[in-house]
Specification:
InterPro entries: CBS_dom, CBS_dom_sf, HPP, TM_HPP. This is CBS domain-containing membrane protein. Pfam families: CBS (PF00571), TM_HPP (PF04982). This protein has 15 helices and five strands. It has 391 residues and is mainly alpha-helical. The strands form two sheets. The chain has a three-stranded mixed β-sheet. Strands 1-2 form a two-stranded antiparallel sheet. Helix 2 runs antiparallel to helix 3 and helix 5 packs antiparallel against helix 6. The radius of gyration is 36 Å and the shape is elongated. The chain starts with a helix and ends with a helix.
Length: 391
């Protein structure tokens, strides 16, 4: 019996340990690289650009090797080349970040090497203070940390005169990056302001203030400009919206069968049909069931001339019962031509028509041009609601 209880206890413990094992495996997967979502053309562009950039800097800097008692080139320039060529849109790779970040970090390293006697302490202080200075000047540039450390570890070579060749190297690299990125279709310097990110047509589900709130909550340095981030969010929202609504056609949400009238229908009969079916518009069809017009409640109200001293009910009653001098047939009141849509037309095409053109009803016709249904603003709103908050 005791062994039986032990086996039951061990069996009970094994399922409980599975979540911990799964969490451990998920954590270990974080160390594996993720696929790089770029084309081979972009990879070749990066390889050629970094190689050519460093080669150009090396050729020019090597000419000064004999005339200056300082290093003619530092290793951190290679890291800067990767940034300005491979990720030219990154805030860490912009010209101000490269130039100012390199200069302030190198000077910080020289100061720490001169004022702090313990080289171990000087290493930590140099890199930490360099990062603080770059953050204060808004020029965070990762290779700057290497320059600060180089200045502490190689004090004989890291002197104020050495700042000249260093800035020359960096300046040549930035100029080469500007030319190369321009020739290969990349924006550099890259705009970092939020205004550069244009919202997609038709509005957006979020505003710049929403992006600011999300960034404040994230509270971390992003290696992407705010403009690009907002643009990506717009594109992602558009893609999600297109995925949920893009495959819908007008025939998927139209009301069918639809009640319709002919041009010779009496206004009284059309009004009665509207009231009985609780609709606000009736397509007007011809002999081949083609749409020749549309009559709406707004047409009745407009013809009733509501600005007169008579009330709404009295004016409509006279109009519908034929006691008015106004025409009494649908043909004289309907809107011509009627805006119509195809049954197979994407539903997304109707959004600007409803929101900007001021339409409220669209007769839907099939491939033969015959009336197949009608779409109202309510139908569109219902479809949008299902797309935004699917059940």
């Amino acid at each position: 019996m005791p062994s039986f209880r032990f086996l039951r206890t061990a069996a009970d413990l094994r399922p409980a340990a599975m979540p911990g094992r799964r969490a451990c495996m998920d954590w270990l997967r974080l160390f594996f690289p993720q696929p790089v979502g770029i084309t081979w053309h972009e990879r070749v562009r990066m390889v050629l650009g970094t190689g050519l950039g460093i080669a150009l800097v090396a050729v020019l800097a090597h000419q000064l090797e004999t005339s200056l008692p300082t290093p003619w080139m530092v290793a951190s320039i290679g890291a800067s080349a990767v940034l300005v060529i491979a990720v030219p849109a990154s805030p860490l790779a912009q010209p101000w970040a490269v130039l100012a970040g390199s200069a302030v970090s190198f000077l910080t390293g020289i100061a720490c090497a001169s004022w702090i006697g313990d080289v171990v302490l000087a290493c930590g202080m140099a890199v930490g203070l360099a990062v603080a200075a770059m953050l204060a000047l808004r020029c965070l540039h990762p290779p700057g940390g290497a320059l600060a450390l180089f200045a502490v570890l190689h004090p004989p070579e890291a002197t104020l005169p050495a700042a000249g060749p260093l800035l020359l190297n960096v300046s040549v690299l930035v100029l080469a990056a500007i030319v190369y990125n321009h020739l290969t279709g990349r924006s550099y310097p890259h705009g970092q302001k939020a205004a550069a990110a244009a919202a997609p047509a038709g509005g957006s589900a979020f505003t710049s203030a929403d992006v600011d709130a999300a960034l404040a909550h994230y509270n971390d340095v992003l290696d992407i400009s705010r403009a690009d981030l907002e643009g990506l969010l717009h594109l992602a929202g558009r893609a999600a919206f297109q995925r949920t609504l893009g495959e819908l056609r007008c025939s998927d949400i139209m009301s069918a069968p639809v009640h319709a009238v002919v041009p010779g229908t009496a206004l009284a009969d059309a009004w009665t049909l509207m009231r009985r079916q609780a609709v606000k518009a009736l397509p007007v069809i011809g002999p081949r069931r083609d749409v020749v017009g549309i009559i709406t409640v707004a047409d009745f109200m407009r013809l009733a001339n509501l600005d007169t001293h008579e009330g709404v009910g009295e004016r409509l009653r006279k109009l519908i019962l034929g006691r008015s001098r106004q025409p009494d047939q649908v043909a004289s009141l309907m809107s011509i031509p009627a805006q119509q849509v195809q049954a197979g037309q994407p539903l997304m095409d109707l959004v600007p028509l409803f929101s900007e053109a001021g339409h409220h009803h669209f007769p839907v016709v099939d491939e033969q041009g015959q009336l197949a249904g009608i779409i109202t603003q309510t139908d569109l709103v219902r479809a949008l609601a299902r797309a935004v908050a699917p059940r």
